[in-house]
Amino acid sequence: MAVLKINYPPVNYHHVIIGKMPLSAFLSDVLNIGTSVQIIEHLAKYHSQNGDTCQIDAFEISAADLHNDKKSGTVAISYLVKYHYGCADITRQAKGHETWRFEIDAEHNTLLLFMPEYEVRSTHDEF
């Protein structure tokens, strides 16, 4: 399991707790500022096994849930994967979505995002 540690402004999390900011807006800000490249790379690595070239430009928060403890929850992200098969000159697109777990370390103003290590098949493994 890959764990991405992301610092956030403490005032933003406080606004979530008191109801002034929706959780999805907080997560969108935290995940898209400074860490979107790592998240996109993680997703592209998984999807690249399906085509010669895989491109994911962005993602969006499609759902978010904060558990009763106010320190953990889940976030669902949606994204578009663009594939290009060079030899056949074929391009296609597919929608993707993932639901990942997160934890809030309010003492250190850090969000821990738990991204599963997806199983990637290699043609080398087939022989």
Notes on the structure:
With 127 residues, the protein is of the alpha+beta class. The protein contains three helices and six strands. Strands 1, 2, 3, 4, 5 and 6 form a six-stranded antiparallel sheet that branches. The two termini are 27 Å apart. The mean pLDDT is 87.
In short, what is this structure?
This protein is an alpha+beta fold and 127 residues long. It has helices at residues 10-17, 23-32, 36-47; strands spanning 2-7, 53-55, 59-66, 72-85, 90-105, 110-115. Strands 1, 2, 3, 4, 5 and 6 form a six-stranded antiparallel sheet that branches.
Percent range for β-strand residues: 35-45%
The percent range for helix content is: 10-25%
Report mean pLDDT, rounded to a whole number.
87
What is the terminal separation in angstroms? 27 Å
Strand-pairing-aware structural class = alpha+beta
Which H/E pattern describes the elements? Answer: EHHHEEEEE
> How many runs of DSSP E, i.e. beta strands?
6
Residue runs with pLDDT of under 50 for 5 or more positions: none
What would you report as the Rg, rounded to the nearest angstrom? Answer: 17 Å
Number of helices: 3
Largest sheet composition:
6 strands, antiparallel
Shape: elongated
